[in-house]
Write a structure and sequence with these properties.
Elements lengths: L14 E6 L1 E2 L5 E2 L3 E4 L2 E9 L2 E5 L13
Parallel strand pairs: 1-5
Antiparallel strand pairs: 2-3, 4-5, 5-6
């Protein structure tokens, strides 16, 4: 087994949580798209007769602001 030095590399973790949409009494579907933490995103899935609909938000990959 060969070892790798980690100090010369950048590792970025990310995760995607898919949550089933809630259904109101009038039949509309709803859910909350959010960035739970840096790189951890929540999407929601709406099940329809014609198939599933997945809604995703657009979020920046990091909340850090770097100034030189």
């Amino acid at each position: 087994m060969t070892g790798h030095r980690l100090d010369d590399h950048y590792f970025y973790q990310q995760g995607h949580h898919y949550v089933l949409a809630q259904i109101r009494e009038d039949g509309t579907h709803y859910g909350q798209l959010e960035k739970q933490a840096s790189g951890i995103l929540r999407h929601f899935v709406s099940l329809r007769p014609e198939g599933q609909l997945i809604l995703k938000g657009i979020f920046p990959p990091s909340d850090e602001l770097l100034l030189w």
